[in-house]
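User: structure tokens for this one?
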Amino acid sequence: MTQQDVVIVGGGHNGLVAAAYLAQAGRSVTVLERLAQFGGAAVSAQAFEGVEARLSRYSYLVSLLPARIIRELRLDIRLERRRYSSYTPDGRSGRGLLVDSLDADGTAASFASIGGDVAAWHEFYGGTARLAQTIFPTVCHPLLTRSEAKRLVADDRLWSAFVERPVGEIIESTFDNDLVRGVVLTDALIGTFASAHDATLAANRCFLYHVIGGGTGDWDVPVGGMGAVTSELADAARKAGAVLIAGAEVTSVTPDGEVRYLVNDREAVMGAGTVLANVAPHVLSRLLGEAGGGRPEGSQLKVNLLVKRLPRLLDETLDPTSAFGGTFHVNESYSQLESAFQTASGGRMPSPLPAEIYCHSLSDPSILSPELAASGAHTLTVFGLHTPDRLLSAANNDAMRERLTRAALDSIDSVLGEPIEDLLMTDAAGRPCIEAKTTLDLEAALRMPGGNIFHGPLDWPFVEDDAALATPAERWGVSTAHDRILLCGAGARRGGAVSGLGGHNAAMAVLESAL
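Assistant:
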């Protein structure tokens, strides 16, 4: 049996980060990846036959990846900052809210046009900026306790509003406008099925991670697509000496570090001083032969589109490149989001379906062939909210995918000046360039239980004051019930999103254990 210092189960971006750090430190490392391609959810793909467009198929924006990881692993990664934060059309009124980071006067005028308060907006996000500036620098260090984090923030009102009380309370007390409230609330709902007044504060945790990235809360476009990020990570791991094996499906893991896997239908066994699990905790439990507890639940629809040109807007005075230059919110007012949550909680599909659109190719035309870019074509990523996994089953998944896709297109059409389907390109076989992924599709493709993009419920980026912090794994937030098995994926504390934090922190725990 081959013996390694570290075996990493899963070659997603976090596993590659851990492999690069540990191999650089002189550890023998092997990464076992089930799929033929490394990168997990952070990959690029030519999704439409005969059409030269490399889409970020699953994950699509970067905020939480610390600059220190890019620097320490010597990654050649470029992230493009979007000028526009968001555009939110107000139904059929023809008006909309455009937030432009380079035009304060224009943004103020846009707020005034819908009856919104731009001063309240700046005050609110001034508060989240202070949270970002204090909390984000801690994510690559051992965990703070709740009391330590609160002292660091040094603002009891801010701490209470975002950490101790449902996020809906601060949104409602700060903003009167339903549209503005909805724009703010969306950051609490990406990948999270919750009400603004959820007593468990699940929406708060989601919101916090969305506003602290990089110490600014900005969400950037990876130049070359998500595949460019994970390609760099894989190269860094290989250059450092890690062994990366694709097409290796792990079938079992034991607490003493034995990993069994299949390659070309043949079983192999590898022993490890430490096993890093870059899989969801629910999946790790299955590999260990243990009861995994409740299956996590995701709550999103992902639709990739390729259009001949950007669609016309109801507001004909606004350039579509501005509206689609940031996050384009679709039927995401506060009341619509809360209504959609209640509808889905009752087992029905929301109508209209809340969604948001991202146009990667406006910021990064390199993902298109020169001919395609010159033609005016663009990629559109649609992320549908409040479509929980409970609405789907193996028996109805195909039918629900069609229904959800139709609902997403209808919702988009309701806020545009022309039908989106009229603009779809066709592939080599004459089929419309549209690809939809339900929660069950994500589970089948990426082994994300319930399609949960965070591998499970998000944790605070700190621990309670009485939490066990005796071991390096506990201090770094990557511990499991077994000393030789650590989490290194999105399911680690401070995991989720394309951040590399799970991988970095697991690697630090391994290295600290050897001291």
